[in-house]
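User: Please predict the structure of the protein below. I'd like the answer in structure-token form so I can feed it into my own downstream comparison script.

Assistant: Understood. Taking the following sequence of 445 residues as input:
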Amino acid sequence: MKRIIREFDGVSEIVYVADIKDYVLLFLNKAGLKAFGYDSLEQVEGKKCYEVLQGRKSPCPFCTNGKLHKDKYLEWRHKNRPTGKEYRLKDKLISWEGREARIEIAEEIFNSGQQNAEAELKRMLEREQIVMECIQMMHSSLEVDMAVNNTLEVMGRYLYGERTYIFNTYGSYMDNIYEWCAEGVSEERGSLQKLPISAIQRWLPYFYRNECVIIRDVELIKESAPEEYAILKRQGIKTLIAVPFIEKEQLVGYFGIDNPKAGNLDEVSNILKMLAYFFQALLERKKREDYLKKIGFTDTMTGANNKNAFIRDTMLSDTGGLSSAGGFFIDINGLKKTNDTYGHEAGDNLIRQVYQIICYVMGDFPVYRLGGDEFAVLCRNISKEKLEGLHKRLREELDGRNGCNAAIGASFLENPSDLGVLIDEADKRMYKDKKQYYKKIGSKR
């Protein structure tokens, strides 16, 4: 058997052996490993032949297992999608280490001029079909994120790539904002945030000419672009295609595919170019939606969350994961007097100043402006001791600022079922605090 393997490894044709019953790939020669993008036989051992050779999840509908004989070869032709090439095939039943198996020898067919033209036409129609499928998917989904993720998956599977992704560029940095990974390929998005643009410095002239960047062998840039090489090598990238998003002559992002196996890289780049405009349109739509969402839930004067956000986060949010919660209700004392004495601009400045003090004390806990002089704070999963500490510190900060006095109410619940009840209780306590303030002011007159 070892002698036979050595013989198979020395030929230019693709040769493989697979178990007839369970489709397990038993052998793939060096020519086959190279054609399908593998470095060693160990990488494919135990996998199904239809997975490795056809990129399928189930047995091929054109499988010849039921037509094979031990005494003669079955000859046929087939276009292999992962390699993008057509082969003349010879299949036969053999015994392989005690197992009944199929051996297949695949010889690439080098077409004549007419056959080449027909093959190119077929590839062009396939490209147009997959592009139209992706465009339809982009426009049929109401959710931008879903449309982008689904399209990246379709492209990745069609081109037999390992990863498809989109990067957003801003200033001197870039973030991986969308990512699809093939089965068995590790996600990289989390580690590809705030990367310096300098890492792709070599790509920028191509991008600004609205051209694709094609890396046919990452080892060829090891010496000339070490920073780029280190990032790509760490991700297991051997080949790569990236397409720019250009807006008003500025680079705003790019998308690409790692280690595509279907067709040649120039053909793949043509497919990605066709989709670039539609991806960009989707991302622009996402920006508009995010902006509208932001202004719909943001107070324009202070930048705080507004009443809509408060309703969303109290009445509509799930409290199942909360072990405890705290709430504050804050009302500025003397705002009317400030408006009457110094004007509404001074009153607006007072509101902004109080908001900044609240944010400073509360840290990452969300602050909401509910009305002219009213604020609320939600503190999820907070201890009672920490809540009391924040209450004391907020009081000290507000009392220590000239003209920034406010009434404060705080409440705490373990295993809360209704955050609105929490804030209502804080509101009641705030009114008690406000009565004490005006009682104190009245006694000084």
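That's the full token string. The CA atoms of residues 89 and 106 lie 5 Å apart.
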